[in-house]
Amino acid sequence: MYESLDEFKLVCSSHRFRCPSCNEISHEPFFCSSEAKPKCNWKAYGLQGCLGKGHRFAIKDTFLANPKVHEIFMPVELEH
């Protein structure tokens, strides 16, 4: 749970995310934009989500008005 959207953006400041399907680096948190061949096209919002390898979070500022847990590809900063 992050206090605000700004706090979340600090964690993902490099804009590098690990695709759960091809394990390449994507610059998009919700879909694979890697240059891997063949093209991956994996989406975090698809049927299988992030295969248990993603980052699930909520923003405290907006949680009461919109109680939603988001899932994105794992930010590289949080992998270890």
Automatic annotation (TrEMBL):
Source species, domain of life: Bacteria
Protein's name in the database: Uncharacterized protein
Organism, scientific name: Shewanella violacea (strain JCM 10179 / CIP 106290 / LMG 19151 / DSS12)
